[in-house]
Structures are given as structure tokens and as C-alpha cells.
Write the C-alpha cells for this entry.
Amino acid sequence: MKTNEILDEIHRVREEIARECDYDVHKLFERMRQRTEKLKAEGWQVVYPEPRQPEAADALREEPPRKNESPGEKRP
């Protein structure tokens, strides 16, 4: 199997950062916030994605059939 040097580098860096943060997601995000603030202070423009709009349901939701009721039976 061929090795992919780019993926190997990504995995190596990811593991290094995780180890530096003691594999703690809270420390990882704090580190990201600090680095983002540092970039802003250096004059970089930080862009955030727009909030996602809720998606419309593709189908109407129906109540599940009651006990002892067949799926095609209509309710009063």
C-alpha cells in the first residue's frame, strides 16, 4: 500500500497537538481561541461561517400506530 506523505504529516501534527493539550478537548479549544486572538492582533482577518438555517422537513411527521392498530388504519 502506498503511503500518503500529506496525510502522514496531518496525522503527525494532529497527534502532536493532542499530546500538548493532554488529549483534553477543552484545552484544545482554549488553545485555538488564543491563537485566533493572536492572529487578530497581528492584523489577520478572521472569518466565521454564517449560521446555518434550519432545514425544512421532507415529509410530514405522523404519530406511530397505536398498539393493536394496523399501519394503514385511519384514526378518528
